[in-house]
UniProtKB/TrEMBL annotation:
Source taxon at top rank: Bacteria
Record-linked Pfam families: ACAS_N, AMP-binding, AMP-binding_C
Listed name of the protein: Propionate--CoA ligase
Homology family: Belongs to the ATP-dependent AMP-binding enzyme family.
Swiss-Prot/TrEMBL GO biological process terms: propionate catabolic process, 2-methylcitrate cycle
ATP-binding keyword on record: yes
Keyword set includes Nucleotide-binding: yes
UniProt entry keywords in alphabetical sequence: ATP-binding, Ligase, Nucleotide-binding
Segments forming domain AMP-binding enzyme C-terminal: 517-595
GO MF term set: ATP binding; propionate-CoA ligase activity
Amino acid sequence: MTNQVRDPYQDFHERSLRDRDAFWTEQAALIDWQQPFEQVCDTCRPPFARWFVGGRTNLCYNAVDRHAAKRPEDRALIWVSTEVEQERVYSFAQLQREVERMAAILQAQGVGQGDRVLIYMPMIPEAAFAMLACARIGAIHSVVFGGFASVSLASRIEDASPKLIVSADAGSRGGKVVPYKHLLDEAITLAAHKPEAVLMVDRGLAPMSLVAGRDLDYAALREQHLDARVPCAWLPAEHPSYTLYTSGTTGKPKGVQRDTGGYAVALAASMQHIFCGRPGETYFSTSDIGWVVGHSYIIYGPLLAGMATLMFEGLPTRPDAGIWWQLVEKYRVTVMFSAPTAVRVLKKQDPAYLTKYDLSSLRALFLAGEPLDEPTSRWICEGLGKPVIDNYWQTETGWPILTVAHGVAPTPTRFGSPGRAMYGYDVRLLDENTGEELREPNKKGVLTIAYPLPPGCLQTVWGDDERYVKTYWSSIPGQQVYSTFDWGLRDADGYYFILGRTDDVINVAGHRLGTREIEESIASHPNVAEVAVVGVADALKGQVAMAFAVLKNPAVDALQEEGAIMKQVDQQLGAVARPARVRFVNVLPKTRSGKLLRRAIQAVCEGRDPGDLTTIEDPSALQQIRELVAN
Ligand code: AMP
């Protein structure tokens, strides 16, 4: 960062590391504590770290009760479903009552502090009540994405060993009912662990039969607990608040375990410094509660900041591609959070939708979860006339590692870069072979975070400390660094660029290439809507790049278009990066959370078993690639 001009953010970041305890003590004042902490960070047992030791607090109290006390009538939860054509708005006071009812139901079933509650639900308010109710009484929630089928659900039930499961009769996607109950019953049959009770929310979407002695009807129990008052349990800061299983891992799922106090502080601080959300405003994240963004920025973050959170059940294109913007107008949304993949879906639609509604309340659109390519970023930024802010993080960290913190100081963004290292993160680029830190700008290295991780990041892998240490902290021998498994590069001004997963790297004739770079180049071709590039084994070159693209207008001569795209890559990156083939597909294989399944594509191209495909959105996508490759 030799040429970097000093700016207030740089000072802020440096202070967060140099003067760590004072910095985080200030941030900790953003939440209420029942008992103050005695030690800011206990680093006695690296790589483990304990934040705000001795302090007692409660996530639900900070997210709901403290606002309900001061602003009971203000909106807290806005639920909109374009699937079932319903909208519901809960004030902070109403949300508190619903959470207390849910908490009373859980307690009546014997759920107490430290017990696990697995939540397998669609995007309905009761899912939020259940999460907050767990936080209220100190039960540990484990939300499993509603789209998972029974085998993945069973392995998560087994790992979390929940006392109780909360679920619903069905979700709905694109107007089609997706029944849950039979998947849940099957998962419970498959899992070695059996929950004592299953609490079912009946939306009236799909028939379901309740198992006597195990299954409970939420509506009936809620009636019994209408007047319930359940106090918040004052929990030690390091009490686990939840576990969340990471996507894309093979074999046994990895339960990311988060604490209570550190998480509350980290999110409250991020709402102030990064998202700039203020009490009384509305936050709209298009994610799902089954993913980390749903935990941090549908439920906890906005509510901690005293904002209303808009929970949306529906697709971005139904009833038409203007639905998000219609909601922004209707609820005066100020901060919005989505993923590049969703924007690419909109990119295929009429851009007139972007200007159809009054978006004057909206200050910024945050995008995360995957690389944000320049054409997509430009398209949405120019279409909306609003700042688009890329942010890079992981399920493990719970909040952004790299972005820009406009709440600290106005900071220009750069296309292709999620931004700079966030306060609290001591980000280092390391040489993958020697482990040496790459201090010079524009050097590609493994993106790591030096010990200790800031508050809010994972405490450990649920039930497996050894796996936590081995997976994340052992890639550079002799160094206490957490590996993100991403390649990164930092320019002279401290802006980072993510160049793909360390495991996605390809090596063509001795040249190391990031598939991301090739994808960006191809994506900037005017007829390309989306593209995935993978490295495929090649007898001559070691590996070659193979590209699979979705065309905006497929009615073209495929060979000619392939040639034109290759020429463009040649021109932009050089012939070394030119893919061996560019094949055209209708849809790319992705997880339900929108991540490209590159490794599965690679396996299919190499004639191998693609492995665990439980997270795949559309299995036919892989089939099309299989057929293309076979011909
Ligand atoms: P997950 O834990 O499923 O959210 O996935 C985290 C991974 O997604 C990271 O390790 C990155 O590889 C990728 N990722 C997330 N956000 C970004 C971003 N803004 N830019 C590039 N890659 C990202």
